[in-house]
Write a structure and sequence with these properties.
By secondary structure, the chain is α/β, with parallel strands linked by helices. It has one domain: Response regulator (Rossmann fold), CATH 3.40.50.2300. It has five helices and eight strands. The protein has a six-stranded mixed β-sheet, with helices on both faces. A two-stranded antiparallel sheet has the order 5-6. Helix 1 links the parallel strand 2 (about 15-20) and strand 3 (about 40-45). Helix 2 (about 50-60) packs parallel to helix 3 (about 75-85).
Length: about 140
């Protein structure tokens, strides 16, 4: 599934991203996939605190945030990043193994520009979300 909040004209983007997920195996696999497809993965994080620090330091184009980070909420982290909490501001794309329909209300209430299932994660999907958001 692929959900987008906004739409506008299409343009090519250079993308720097941070991946946030509590699963080290997924982080490694996703990093390899995205880098092979031309996305610059500038960092990975496994907790909200680590993500906030890295976003503040590295200022990525976008942060990919798993909706469930163990005991933490990816939705809460998304709100913090979009609001610029602690100097860490970033556009957010939510990711999950859950289908969009299972968490649609939470996605709709979030400030994320898009939602991707992990099985649909790709550089093209990220670029499309950013382009449609106007980045």
């Amino acid at each position: 599934m692929f959900w987008l909040r906004h739409s506008c004209h299409h343009q090519r983007v250079s993308v720097r991203c941070i991946l946030v997920d509590d699963n080290a195996h997924f982080l490694g696999a996703a990093r390899g996939l995205l880098e092979a497809e031309g996305i610059e993965v500038v960092a990975v994080a496994t907790t909200s605190a680590e993500a906030v620090r890295k976003v503040a330091d590295l200022q990525p184009t976008v942060t990919l945030v798993d909706v469930y980070l163990g005991r933490e909420s990816g939705f809460d982290l998304a709100r913090r990043l979009v609001a610029g909490t602690e100097g860490a501001q970033s556009k957010v794309i939510l990711i999950s193994t859950y289908a969009e329909r299972d968490i649609a209300e939470l996605i709709d209430a979030s400030p994320a520009i898009a939602f991707l299932t992990k099985s649909n994660l790709s550089a093209a999907a990220i670029r499309d979300a950013l382009q449609l958001d106007g980045t």
